[in-house]
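Appendix B. Worked example

We walk through a single record from start to finish. Start with the input: the chain for Two-component system response regulator, Streptomyces viridochromogenes, length 230.
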Amino acid sequence: MGVRLMVVDDHRLLAEALASALKLRGHRVLAAAAPAAGAAELVITRAPEVCLLGTATPAEPGIFDPVVRIKRERPQVAVLVLGPVPSPRGIAAAFAAGASGYVRHDERIEGVERAIMKARAGEAAVAPQLLQGAFSELLNPAAQPDDEGQRLLQMLTPREVEVLVRVADGEDTRLIAAGMGIAPSTARTHVQRVLMKLGVGSRLEAAALAARTGLLDRAGPLARDPGPEA
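Next comes the structure step. The output line below is what the pipeline stores for this chain.
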C-alpha cells in the first residue's frame, strides 16, 4: 500500500523529480515543493504520513527548526531529512530535532523508498554508510576537509554559475534565455558547458550535484551579479 507523503524542498526541480518518481511507485504525494520558510506550515496543514524535508546545509544552526515544529504540532508525521553528505553534527542535529531519518540527495529511488517505509513503521532510517562515515570522521577528523562545492564553483564562470542556479530552479532553456537576456542558442550552449564541467549527463544530475555539495548556497551572491558575458 502506498504511503501518503510530501516532498518539501526549495529546489523545485529536485522536489518535482523525486515526487514524480515516488508517484510512479504507487505513493500518494501531496505536494512537491515549497520555500524553506513555509515548509513546517505546509506539512502541519496537510499532515502526511511521511515528509521528505530538503536541506542544503545540515550543520547550520536552526536549520532543523521546521522539524521541531512539525513534531511538536503533528507528532504522528515521520520526517525524513533530505540533504547532502552530512557531518556527524548534522546527523545528530537532525535526530535531536525529531527526524526519523536522513537520506542523501543522491540516494537511489529504491533507497529513498526503503527509508520512507522504515520511517512510517517508526524505525530510524539512515544508511549504514552514513553512520560509518560519521563515526570515521569523529574518530579521525580531517584537519582541512576537501570543499567539493568550492572546487566545483571555481570551475564555472559567473555566467555559468547563474545558469546552474536557474537550472536548479527548474527553468528550461527558454526561461533561462529570457531571464538572462540572451538567445536560446546561447543559453543552450551555457547549459552544455555547465554539464561538461561538472561531469554530469543531465540537468537533473547537475542540480543534484550542486545541492549535495552546497554549491548552490555558495553560488547565491555570484548568481545575483553574474558580471560580463563569459
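Two observations about the output. Residues 143-220 form a domain with the Arc Repressor Mutant, subunit A fold (CATH 1.10.10.10). The CA atoms of residues 71 and 205 lie 32 Å apart.
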